[in-house]
Amino acid sequence: MNPSMKLALLFVVALEISFTTIVSLNVALIIIALIYLLFKRTRLKTLGWLLLVPLLPAIGLWSTQYINGTGDKTLMAWVLFTRIYAFVFTGATFTLTTNILQLADSLEQNWHLPAKFAYGVLAAYNLIPKIKHEVEIIRAAGRMRGQTLSFWSPQLYFKAILVSINWSQNLAQAMRSHGFVEDAPRTHYRQITLRRRDWAILIGGIVLLQVGVFIIPWY
Amino acid sequence: MVAIAIEQLTYAYSAAQTPIFDHATGTFPANQFTLLTGPSGTGKSTLLELMAGLMALAPEQGTIRYGHQPLTAIPAGERAKSVAMMFQNPNQQFAMDTVENELLFALENQQVAPDQMMARLTAALDFVGIRQLQHRILTQLSGGEKQKVALAVIVAMDSDVILLDEPFASVDPVARASLLKRLVTLRDQRHKTIILADHDLAGYAPLVDHVMQITPAHQLRALPRTDWPQFFAAFEAAHQPDWQRPALGVETVFNFQQLQLQQGRHVLLQPTDLQLPRHRNLLITGANGCGKSTLFEALVRLSDYAGTISYRGTDIQKIKRKRYAHHVALLFQDAETQFLNITVAEELAQSQKYASGDYFTPERIQTALSQLNLAGRDDRVIYTLSEGQKKKLQILLMLIIQSPVLLMDEPLKGLDLKSIHALVALLQTTLAVTHQTLIIISHQLTGLTPLIDHHLHFENHQLHYVGRGRHES
């Protein structure tokens, strides 16, 4: 499916289940997401982690609601419990099957977002692991000059911001030196198509969701 | 193909008092290989950036012409077709994640038809001889490999003029020779115009057609061929001295037991036992990406390793980080990494405040500053200094700190011969008093040799001493 359409559909789903209290709907969404992930050949180990990691916060929410909640405590406790899993699994249908490059391509080609923006997002994403190591390096550089930079030290952030500004300038220069010109026409090696099918899935998905929310008499 | 003419170029950074160029005029002939030289900080990078159109030039600041056409008249979209640039820092030239995606990005920008892209991409990779890197992630490549990829991008873009700003600053001799060979081929077979800025001029004499100098009077001057022999002689590789291996039983500063280094799943150093002597200056050489910098990161506990590293008898993992940092400091390869403040004066003050010894009195600091040609820049924002000035300031800051052990990663990077001599002299007079232990990684040996006592070579995932004398391991 087209990456940006998939993201849009998931956004609507997330928004809607945030305001509904239907346990069966959440469970249905989890099952659909699970089937999709299995269909996309997600490794079972990854699925195991997806089940395990949210367990603690889910139990936490469940027990808080069950013990301290008001109104229908049992129902609300299970709504929150299943909602966490619905978020995680529907989210995973995007993060585990789509990479950021495809999303950037789609935003640029299908929605005509400025290429500068699409590549900026992409570059920022590629920088995340570098930033972590860079913070360690900044702290080491401080220690070697007698200064302990704690995680709340403004100097650490000043330095990190300087490094980021530097990186962004270098990135802009790298892009320009490789022929990138803002708003200039470009060709695309990876063609991301936006088919009727993508629209059909988006609209169909949203309609089905409304059926689930308002029409089916869930218990 | 067209010659590039610089006409009446006058340029100054707003913060600097003196101009970098003062009505400079000169011509870079078409289809030829021109070497651009000048001491560090004289404006080689600035000139190349101006010629590449990466920095704008106002009409009153002079004109840069490609043939008859002023650079400013070439539409931005067509500039990449005319001129491409390769940067000094191999980490600063890529926008994408993998080699393939970076090349595609450049081809897309040139509006190459998608069905022709893969052919051009593989042709460019084959030309540079790095087809095997096509699907690799850029951040996992060594400096030399990154520069080869940068050249492949330029080949794929097929730009007429290729500008290179000290492209070999962190490239080992083998990769450097291979890159130079490709540049000569680009000139001879594809009629490219090549302009390369460097200050380590070893090996260029037989390759280049012209030498263009930036003079102390901020002018451009073509060096007459009759002056070449004398000019290049200063850089010809001095024969490598035959250093001694450390004697048995000397006091050691670091002791490696089964030390093993890895980068991802790639083994850099196989389990090694080795002693590094105290109060001696040690040189570490080895090809690009072999793991020299990773060894330094392990020594200052910035990266993981297997086995044990002991500092004067204690496992470094058992020493408090803060205390250990007072003993073992690292001069980072990139000078900016070292800086913590904003102005030169603030940086100097910080080093003085936390110095482990009192050798560097304010007078000695002033002397050192003028020795390094850095005097009178107290209020300058460090980030506006030239790369060479940053490097010299960085080294001085770490000398003032006077940690018992100083690891230096490519301390000569970006420095001209005059600065190197000044720096080595400063190091010698300082070490004579402070008795620090220096461990130096350097590709460039010109001028550095008087400082070195022992030599370690990194090769085939092994680290061993070279030279005369007996030493096990």
UniProtKB/TrEMBL annotation, chain A:
Alphabetical list of InterPro entries matching this protein: ABC/ECF_trnsptr_transmembrane
Swiss-Prot/TrEMBL keywords: Membrane, Transmembrane, Transmembrane helix
Record bears the keyword Membrane: yes
Membrane topology: Multi-pass membrane protein
Keyword Methyltransferase attributed: no
Protein localization: Membrane
Pfam families reported in the protein's UniProt record: CbiQ (PF02361)
Chain segments annotated as transmembrane: 6-39, 46-63, 75-96, 199-218
Official protein name in the record: Energy-coupling factor transporter transmembrane component T family protein
TrEMBL record, chain B:
Compartments it resides in: Cell membrane
Keyword Cell inner membrane carried by entry: no
Family annotation (Pfam families): ABC_tran
CDD domains from the UniProt entry: ABC_cobalt_CbiO_domain1 (cd03225)
MF term (GO), any: ATP binding
Membrane topology (UniProt): Peripheral membrane protein
Family matches, as InterPro entries: AAA+_ATPase (IPR003593), ABC_transporter-like_ATP-bd (IPR003439), ABC_transporter-like_CS (IPR017871), ABC_transpr_CbiO/EcfA_su (IPR015856), ECF_ABC_transporter_ATP-bd (IPR050095), P-loop_NTPase (IPR027417)
Superkingdom of source: Bacteria
Annotated keywords: ATP-binding, Cell membrane, Membrane, Nucleotide-binding, Translocase, Transport
Domain ABC transporter: 4-241, 248-473
Family: Belongs to the ABC transporter superfamily.
Protein name: ATP-binding cassette domain-containing protein
Lineage: Bacteria, Bacillati, Bacillota, Bacilli, Lactobacillales
